[in-house]
Protein backbone atom coordinates (compact mmCIF):
# COMPACT_ATOMS: atom_id res chain seq x y z
CA UNK A 1 0.00 0.00 0.00
CA UNK A 2 2.84 2.37 0.86
CA UNK A 3 4.57 1.44 -2.41
CA UNK A 4 1.39 2.24 -4.35
CA UNK A 5 1.02 5.57 -2.52
CA UNK A 6 4.62 6.47 -3.32
CA UNK A 7 4.11 5.70 -7.02
CA UNK A 8 0.96 7.84 -7.09
CA UNK A 9 2.77 10.78 -5.48
CA UNK A 10 5.67 10.56 -7.93
CA UNK A 11 3.23 10.33 -10.85
CA UNK A 12 1.32 13.38 -9.60
CA UNK A 13 4.53 15.40 -9.27
CA UNK A 14 5.63 14.37 -12.76
CA UNK A 15 2.29 15.41 -14.28
CA UNK A 16 2.48 18.69 -12.38
CA UNK A 17 5.94 19.42 -13.80
CA UNK A 18 4.82 18.49 -17.30
CA UNK A 19 1.82 20.78 -16.89
CA UNK A 20 4.02 23.68 -15.79
CA UNK A 21 6.37 23.13 -18.68
CA UNK A 22 3.49 23.09 -21.16
CA UNK A 23 2.05 26.33 -19.78
CA UNK A 24 5.44 28.04 -20.10
CA UNK A 25 5.92 26.92 -23.70
CA UNK A 26 2.51 28.13 -24.84
CA UNK A 27 2.45 31.46 -23.01
CA UNK A 28 1.20 34.13 -25.43
CA UNK A 29 2.83 37.50 -26.01
CA UNK A 30 0.84 40.67 -26.55
CA UNK A 31 1.36 43.79 -28.63
CA UNK A 32 -0.91 46.77 -27.98
CA UNK A 33 -2.16 49.13 -30.69
CA UNK A 34 -3.82 52.34 -29.52
CA UNK A 35 -7.07 53.57 -31.05
CA UNK A 36 -7.30 57.33 -30.63
CA UNK A 37 -10.81 58.21 -31.84
CA UNK A 38 -13.88 60.23 -30.82
CA UNK A 39 -16.77 58.17 -29.47
CA UNK A 40 -18.57 61.32 -28.31
CA UNK A 41 -18.76 65.00 -29.20
CA UNK A 42 -19.34 66.55 -32.61
CA UNK A 43 -17.46 63.82 -34.47
CA UNK A 44 -18.58 60.86 -32.37
CA UNK A 45 -20.62 59.23 -35.17
CA UNK A 46 -17.74 59.26 -37.63
CA UNK A 47 -15.23 58.24 -34.98
CA UNK A 48 -17.27 55.15 -34.16
CA UNK A 49 -17.39 54.14 -37.82
CA UNK A 50 -13.65 54.62 -38.20
CA UNK A 51 -13.04 52.55 -35.07
CA UNK A 52 -15.26 49.79 -36.45
CA UNK A 53 -12.91 49.43 -39.42
CA UNK A 54 -9.99 49.01 -37.05
CA UNK A 55 -11.85 46.50 -34.90
CA UNK A 56 -12.84 44.47 -37.94
CA UNK A 57 -9.23 44.49 -39.18
CA UNK A 58 -8.15 43.22 -35.77
CA UNK A 59 -10.66 40.36 -36.07
CA UNK A 60 -9.25 39.48 -39.51
CA UNK A 61 -5.59 39.77 -38.47
CA UNK A 62 -5.47 39.29 -34.67
CA UNK A 63 -1.80 38.26 -34.51
CA UNK A 64 1.57 39.27 -35.91
CA UNK A 65 4.86 37.36 -36.05
CA UNK A 66 7.94 39.07 -34.60
CA UNK A 67 11.30 37.30 -34.45
CA UNK A 68 9.61 33.97 -35.01
CA UNK A 69 7.14 34.43 -32.16
CA UNK A 70 3.40 35.05 -32.43
CA UNK A 71 2.03 38.13 -30.70
CA UNK A 72 -1.65 38.67 -29.99
CA UNK A 73 -2.64 42.19 -31.09
CA UNK A 74 -4.83 43.98 -28.55
CA UNK A 75 -6.60 47.27 -29.24
CA UNK A 76 -6.49 49.91 -26.51
CA UNK A 77 -9.35 52.30 -27.30
CA UNK A 78 -9.71 55.81 -25.86
CA UNK A 79 -12.30 58.52 -26.52
CA UNK A 80 -10.77 61.89 -27.39
CA UNK A 81 -14.29 63.39 -27.23
CA UNK A 82 -13.82 65.34 -30.50
CA UNK A 83 -12.18 68.05 -28.37
CA UNK A 84 -8.70 69.50 -28.72
CA UNK A 85 -8.57 70.24 -24.98
CA UNK A 86 -9.45 66.62 -24.13
CA UNK A 87 -7.24 65.01 -26.77
CA UNK A 88 -3.90 65.31 -24.89
CA UNK A 89 -5.27 63.43 -21.88
CA UNK A 90 -6.59 60.63 -24.10
CA UNK A 91 -3.25 60.49 -25.91
CA UNK A 92 -1.35 60.30 -22.63
CA UNK A 93 -3.55 57.38 -21.58
CA UNK A 94 -2.35 55.43 -24.62
CA UNK A 95 1.26 56.25 -23.77
CA UNK A 96 0.62 54.93 -20.25
CA UNK A 97 -0.89 51.79 -21.78
CA UNK A 98 2.47 51.12 -23.49
CA UNK A 99 1.06 50.91 -27.00
CA UNK A 100 3.53 50.30 -29.82
CA UNK A 101 1.65 52.36 -32.43
CA UNK A 102 -1.49 54.54 -32.50
CA UNK A 103 -4.33 54.68 -35.03
CA UNK A 104 -6.45 57.83 -35.57
CA UNK A 105 -8.01 60.23 -35.34
CA UNK A 106 -11.22 61.15 -37.09
CA UNK A 107 -10.80 64.91 -36.86
CA UNK A 108 -7.60 66.74 -37.71
CA UNK A 109 -7.71 69.12 -34.76
CA UNK A 110 -7.51 66.36 -32.14
CA UNK A 111 -4.77 64.64 -34.14
CA UNK A 112 -2.69 67.81 -34.11
CA UNK A 113 -3.33 68.31 -30.39
CA UNK A 114 -2.05 64.81 -29.62
CA UNK A 115 0.90 64.74 -32.01
CA UNK A 116 3.49 66.24 -29.61
CA UNK A 117 2.61 63.66 -26.95
CA UNK A 118 3.07 60.70 -29.31
CA UNK A 119 6.26 62.22 -30.66
CA UNK A 120 7.75 62.76 -27.20
CA UNK A 121 6.96 59.12 -26.36
CA UNK A 122 8.45 58.00 -29.72
CA UNK A 123 5.22 56.25 -30.67
CA UNK A 124 4.21 56.48 -34.35
CA UNK A 125 0.62 57.42 -35.17
CA UNK A 126 -1.24 56.44 -38.35
CA UNK A 127 -4.23 58.60 -39.17
CA UNK A 128 -7.11 57.19 -41.17
CA UNK A 129 -9.12 60.24 -42.26
CA UNK A 130 -7.41 63.27 -40.68
CA UNK A 131 -6.90 65.34 -43.84
CA UNK A 132 -5.48 68.69 -42.65
CA UNK A 133 -1.91 69.07 -43.99
CA UNK A 134 -0.65 70.23 -40.59
CA UNK A 135 -1.23 66.77 -39.10
CA UNK A 136 1.99 65.45 -40.66
CA UNK A 137 3.92 68.67 -41.36
CA UNK A 138 7.08 68.70 -39.25
CA UNK A 139 5.69 65.67 -37.40
CA UNK A 140 7.99 62.74 -38.21
CA UNK A 141 5.96 60.34 -36.06
CA UNK A 142 2.60 61.04 -37.74
CA UNK A 143 1.48 59.26 -40.92
CA UNK A 144 -1.90 58.84 -42.64
CA UNK A 145 -3.54 56.65 -45.28
CA UNK A 146 -5.98 59.26 -46.70
CA UNK A 147 -5.66 62.10 -49.19
CA UNK A 148 -5.22 65.61 -47.76
CA UNK A 149 -7.34 68.77 -47.83
CA UNK A 150 -5.53 70.84 -50.49
CA UNK A 151 -6.22 67.95 -52.86
CA UNK A 152 -9.79 67.46 -51.58
CA UNK A 153 -10.59 71.17 -51.88
CA UNK A 154 -9.29 71.16 -55.44
CA UNK A 155 -11.33 68.03 -56.23
CA UNK A 156 -14.58 69.62 -55.05
CA UNK A 157 -13.87 72.89 -56.84
CA UNK A 158 -13.35 70.96 -60.08
CA UNK A 159 -16.46 68.87 -59.44
CA UNK A 160 -18.86 71.80 -58.96
CA UNK A 161 -17.42 73.49 -62.05
CA UNK A 162 -17.86 70.35 -64.12
CA UNK A 163 -21.20 69.22 -62.65
CA UNK A 164 -23.08 72.51 -62.25
CA UNK A 165 -21.05 74.98 -64.32
CA UNK A 166 -20.90 76.90 -61.04
CA UNK A 167 -19.66 80.47 -61.16
CA UNK A 168 -20.56 81.62 -57.63
CA UNK A 169 -19.95 79.58 -54.47
CA UNK A 170 -21.10 80.23 -50.90
CA UNK A 171 -18.67 78.71 -48.39
CA UNK A 172 -19.69 78.06 -44.78
CA UNK A 173 -17.68 76.51 -41.93
CA UNK A 174 -17.37 76.63 -38.16
CA UNK A 175 -15.20 79.41 -36.80
CA UNK A 176 -11.83 78.14 -35.55
CA UNK A 177 -12.38 74.48 -36.43
CA UNK A 178 -9.20 73.16 -38.06
CA UNK A 179 -10.71 70.68 -40.50
CA UNK A 180 -13.58 72.82 -41.77
CA UNK A 181 -11.73 76.12 -41.96
CA UNK A 182 -8.79 74.52 -43.73
CA UNK A 183 -10.91 72.69 -46.31
CA UNK A 184 -13.06 75.78 -46.86
CA UNK A 185 -9.94 77.81 -47.64
CA UNK A 186 -8.53 75.22 -50.05
CA UNK A 187 -11.85 74.94 -51.87
CA UNK A 188 -12.26 78.72 -52.12
CA UNK A 189 -8.73 79.20 -53.43
CA UNK A 190 -9.13 76.46 -56.05
CA UNK A 191 -12.58 77.71 -57.11
CA UNK A 192 -11.33 81.29 -57.54
CA UNK A 193 -8.31 80.02 -59.45
CA UNK A 194 -10.75 78.49 -61.92
CA UNK A 195 -12.47 81.87 -62.39
CA UNK A 196 -15.24 81.53 -59.82
CA UNK A 197 -16.48 84.00 -57.21
CA UNK A 198 -16.73 83.13 -53.51
CA UNK A 199 -18.60 84.49 -50.50
CA UNK A 200 -17.28 82.95 -47.26
CA UNK A 201 -18.81 82.99 -43.78
CA UNK A 202 -18.06 81.19 -40.50
CA UNK A 203 -20.52 80.31 -37.74
CA UNK A 204 -19.59 80.13 -34.03
CA UNK A 205 -19.43 76.82 -32.18
CA UNK A 206 -22.79 75.81 -30.73
CA UNK A 207 -24.85 77.39 -33.52
CA UNK A 208 -28.23 75.74 -33.99
CA UNK A 209 -30.05 78.23 -36.24
CA UNK A 210 -28.60 78.39 -39.75
CA UNK A 211 -31.54 80.16 -41.40
CA UNK A 212 -29.69 83.48 -41.81
CA UNK A 213 -26.69 81.77 -43.42
CA UNK A 214 -28.94 79.89 -45.82
CA UNK A 215 -30.70 83.10 -46.81
CA UNK A 216 -27.31 84.76 -47.32
CA UNK A 217 -26.40 82.02 -49.79
CA UNK A 218 -29.70 82.45 -51.64
CA UNK A 219 -29.39 86.26 -51.70
CA UNK A 220 -25.82 85.97 -52.98
CA UNK A 221 -27.10 83.99 -55.95
CA UNK A 222 -24.81 81.08 -55.21
CA UNK A 223 -24.73 78.23 -57.71
CA UNK A 224 -23.40 75.89 -55.02
CA UNK A 225 -22.91 75.80 -51.25
CA UNK A 226 -19.72 74.26 -49.85
CA UNK A 227 -20.13 73.62 -46.11
CA UNK A 228 -17.44 71.40 -44.57
CA UNK A 229 -18.40 70.88 -40.93
CA UNK A 230 -19.05 68.29 -38.24
CA UNK A 231 -22.06 66.05 -38.86
CA UNK A 232 -24.02 67.55 -35.96
CA UNK A 233 -24.02 70.92 -37.74
CA UNK A 234 -24.38 69.36 -41.19
CA UNK A 235 -27.67 67.77 -40.19
CA UNK A 236 -29.04 71.14 -39.10
CA UNK A 237 -27.80 72.90 -42.24
CA UNK A 238 -29.46 70.32 -44.51
CA UNK A 239 -32.78 70.17 -42.67
CA UNK A 240 -33.05 73.97 -42.38
CA UNK A 241 -32.08 74.47 -46.02
CA UNK A 242 -34.84 72.05 -47.02
CA UNK A 243 -37.35 73.87 -44.80
CA UNK A 244 -36.36 77.18 -46.41
CA UNK A 245 -37.01 75.78 -49.88
CA UNK A 246 -33.35 76.14 -50.84
CA UNK A 247 -32.64 74.63 -54.25
CA UNK A 248 -28.88 75.24 -54.27
CA UNK A 249 -26.77 72.03 -54.34
CA UNK A 250 -24.97 71.57 -51.01
CA UNK A 251 -21.51 70.01 -51.07
CA UNK A 252 -18.90 69.10 -48.48
CA UNK A 253 -15.90 66.91 -47.84
CA UNK A 254 -15.35 63.44 -46.42
CA UNK A 255 -16.86 64.20 -42.99
CA UNK A 256 -20.32 64.27 -44.56
CA UNK A 257 -20.18 60.68 -45.75
CA UNK A 258 -22.22 59.60 -42.76
CA UNK A 259 -25.60 58.08 -41.94
CA UNK A 260 -26.35 61.37 -40.18
CA UNK A 261 -26.29 63.14 -43.57
CA UNK A 262 -28.42 60.42 -45.19
CA UNK A 263 -31.04 60.79 -42.45
CA UNK A 264 -31.08 64.58 -42.84
CA UNK A 265 -31.40 64.53 -46.63
CA UNK A 266 -33.95 61.71 -46.78
CA UNK A 267 -37.39 62.91 -47.80
CA UNK A 268 -36.11 66.24 -49.16
CA UNK A 269 -35.40 67.44 -52.69
CA UNK A 270 -31.98 68.78 -51.75
CA UNK A 271 -29.00 67.73 -53.83
CA UNK A 272 -26.19 66.84 -51.42
CA UNK A 273 -22.75 65.73 -52.64
CA UNK A 274 -19.61 64.68 -50.78
CA UNK A 275 -16.05 63.79 -51.67
CA UNK A 276 -14.76 60.65 -50.04
CA UNK A 277 -12.15 57.91 -50.06
CA UNK A 278 -14.00 54.72 -50.95
CA UNK A 279 -17.11 53.28 -52.59
CA UNK A 280 -18.59 50.07 -51.24
CA UNK A 281 -19.59 49.11 -54.80
CA UNK A 282 -15.93 48.94 -55.84
CA UNK A 283 -15.64 45.48 -57.41
CA UNK A 284 -11.86 45.11 -57.20
CA UNK A 285 -10.75 41.98 -55.34
CA UNK A 286 -9.40 43.45 -52.09
CA UNK A 287 -12.22 45.99 -51.76
CA UNK A 288 -15.00 43.51 -52.56
CA UNK A 289 -13.65 41.02 -50.03
CA UNK A 290 -13.50 43.73 -47.38
CA UNK A 291 -17.07 44.90 -48.04
CA UNK A 292 -18.63 41.43 -47.83
CA UNK A 293 -16.65 40.52 -44.71
CA UNK A 294 -17.29 43.82 -42.96
CA UNK A 295 -21.04 43.69 -43.62
CA UNK A 296 -21.24 40.15 -42.23
CA UNK A 297 -19.25 41.22 -39.17
CA UNK A 298 -21.52 44.25 -38.59
CA UNK A 299 -24.70 42.23 -38.89
CA UNK A 300 -23.45 39.59 -36.47
CA UNK A 301 -23.21 42.08 -33.58
CA UNK A 302 -26.00 44.48 -32.66
CA UNK A 303 -23.63 46.96 -30.95
CA UNK A 304 -21.39 47.12 -34.02
CA UNK A 305 -24.42 47.83 -36.19
CA UNK A 306 -25.64 50.50 -33.77
CA UNK A 307 -22.21 52.17 -33.82
CA UNK A 308 -22.42 52.15 -37.64
CA UNK A 309 -25.63 54.19 -37.55
CA UNK A 310 -28.07 51.29 -37.38
CA UNK A 311 -27.36 49.94 -40.85
CA UNK A 312 -24.67 48.00 -42.71
CA UNK A 313 -23.66 50.74 -45.13
CA UNK A 314 -19.88 50.70 -45.46
CA UNK A 315 -18.55 54.18 -44.69
CA UNK A 316 -15.30 55.23 -46.34
CA UNK A 317 -13.82 55.98 -42.91
CA UNK A 318 -14.39 52.34 -41.94
CA UNK A 319 -12.39 51.27 -44.99
CA UNK A 320 -9.67 53.76 -44.03
CA UNK A 321 -9.70 52.49 -40.44
CA UNK A 322 -9.14 48.99 -41.80
CA UNK A 323 -6.25 50.20 -43.98
CA UNK A 324 -4.70 52.12 -41.08
CA UNK A 325 -4.64 48.95 -38.96
CA UNK A 326 -3.19 46.87 -41.80
CA UNK A 327 -0.56 49.56 -42.40
CA UNK A 328 0.48 49.25 -38.77
CA UNK A 329 0.73 45.47 -39.11
CA UNK A 330 2.87 45.80 -42.24
CA UNK A 331 5.21 48.24 -40.49
CA UNK A 332 5.48 45.97 -37.43
CA UNK A 333 6.39 43.02 -39.65
CA UNK A 334 9.02 45.05 -41.50
CA UNK A 335 10.44 46.39 -38.23
CA UNK A 336 10.34 42.91 -36.69
CA UNK A 337 9.95 44.76 -33.42
CA UNK A 338 7.41 46.03 -30.90
CA UNK A 339 9.35 49.24 -30.31
CA UNK A 340 7.70 52.44 -31.51
CA UNK A 341 10.92 53.93 -32.90
CA UNK A 342 11.59 50.82 -34.99
CA UNK A 343 8.03 50.78 -36.33
CA UNK A 344 8.26 54.48 -37.23
CA UNK A 345 11.51 53.85 -39.13
CA UNK A 346 9.86 50.99 -41.03
CA UNK A 347 6.96 53.10 -42.31
CA UNK A 348 8.72 54.40 -45.47
CA UNK A 349 9.19 50.76 -46.55
CA UNK A 350 5.47 49.93 -46.32
CA UNK A 351 3.90 49.12 -49.70
CA UNK A 352 0.75 47.04 -50.14
CA UNK A 353 -2.67 47.07 -51.78
CA UNK A 354 -5.25 48.32 -49.29
CA UNK A 355 -9.01 48.45 -49.71
CA UNK A 356 -8.86 52.22 -50.45
CA UNK A 357 -6.01 51.81 -52.95
CA UNK A 358 -2.30 51.19 -52.86
CA UNK A 359 -0.68 52.30 -49.61
CA UNK A 360 2.87 53.63 -49.65
CA UNK A 361 4.69 56.69 -48.31
CA UNK A 362 7.07 58.01 -50.98
CA UNK A 363 6.96 61.60 -49.70
CA UNK A 364 7.02 61.58 -45.91
CA UNK A 365 3.96 60.93 -43.80
CA UNK A 366 1.26 61.26 -46.46
CA UNK A 367 0.14 58.25 -48.48
CA UNK A 368 0.17 58.82 -52.24
CA UNK A 369 -3.41 59.41 -53.51
CA UNK A 370 -4.45 60.54 -57.01
CA UNK A 371 -8.25 60.85 -57.04
CA UNK A 372 -11.40 60.91 -54.91
CA UNK A 373 -14.88 59.42 -55.06
CA UNK A 374 -17.87 61.75 -55.40
CA UNK A 375 -21.15 60.48 -53.97
CA UNK A 376 -24.66 61.89 -53.73
CA UNK A 377 -26.89 61.44 -50.69
CA UNK A 378 -30.17 60.31 -52.18
CA UNK A 379 -33.13 59.18 -50.07
CA UNK A 380 -31.22 57.07 -47.55
CA UNK A 381 -28.28 55.85 -49.64
CA UNK A 382 -25.07 57.23 -51.10
CA UNK A 383 -24.98 56.89 -54.88
CA UNK A 384 -21.65 56.85 -56.67
CA UNK A 385 -21.37 59.80 -59.07
CA UNK A 386 -17.80 59.73 -60.42
CA UNK A 387 -14.12 59.59 -59.70
CA UNK A 388 -12.75 63.11 -59.67
CA UNK A 389 -9.20 64.39 -59.84
CA UNK A 390 -8.14 67.81 -58.64
CA UNK A 391 -7.65 70.93 -60.72
CA UNK A 392 -4.52 70.99 -62.81
TrEMBL record:
InterPro entries: Leu-bd (IPR028081), Peripla_BP_I (IPR028082). Pfam families: Peripla_BP_6. Residues 31-378 form the Leucine-binding protein domain. The keyword Calcium does not apply. Keywords: Signal. Belongs to the leucine-binding protein family. This is Amino acid ABC transporter substrate-binding protein. It comes from Candidatus Cryosericum hinesii. The lineage of its organism: Bacteria, Pseudomonadati, Caldisericota/Cryosericota group, Candidatus Cryosericota, Candidatus Cryosericia.
